Amino acid sequence: ENQKTNARNLQNLGAIINLGWYKNIDEYEFRKVLQKIIQSKEKRFLLSKKSSEVCDGEGVSRVIKSMIYAD
Question: What would the pLDDT profile of 34-56 be if each residue is shown by its tens digit?
């Protein structure tokens, strides 16, 4: 529930494909979306590119550094 806004924003940025709440995901819809990703090299490239733009993988390091060097 607390991640709805984040998921919506990441989808708007093109970084993820938001299928909604996990309990409400329809198997047919999931398979359809997955097939599109599998079949489209361009879609995979764009998802990878956009997700890399919003997440650099250095978040944990930044948190640790801020804790170590905090006054």
Answer: 999 999 999 999 999 999 999 88
